[in-house]
Amino acid sequence: xxxxxxxxxxxxxxxxxxxxxxxLNEVSxxxxxxxxxxxxxxxxxxxxxxxxxxxxxxxxxxRIIITTSEIYDTIYIDRVTFGPETCCxxxxxxxxxxxxxxxxxxxxxxxxxGFNFIHWRNTNEFEFKLKGRNxxxxxxxxxxxxxxxx
Length: 150
What we know:
About 5% of the residues lie in helices and about 50% in strands.
């Protein structure tokens, strides 16, 4: 039984020699529940806004969450916000990476397993390794994930 319901955000997919844009599936999070079987979680550095756009929100970060069921990885990206002095952390949005689309567009064969997060480059970019290849993931406007071969 899943703790999440999801609705797909259809984004225009663009592929060129340098990068690939993949679809992100927005997940409605029931904050009373939790991610099942977390095998990895990492939060990016916090970006503080020049001016708070809400009296309670002064900064944001992203998180990569990997859950593993048997041998299969599921990858989520959270957008989290922070209040004054980094208090009041709150999950604002959650997306699930479509592993079938990612595998297809990156021409990866076999099961979607072994996603290895390396490190955050900044609030919106991270490096990872998958199937022996290095990539950079770039969260674009918190709506698209651009994958760049590294």
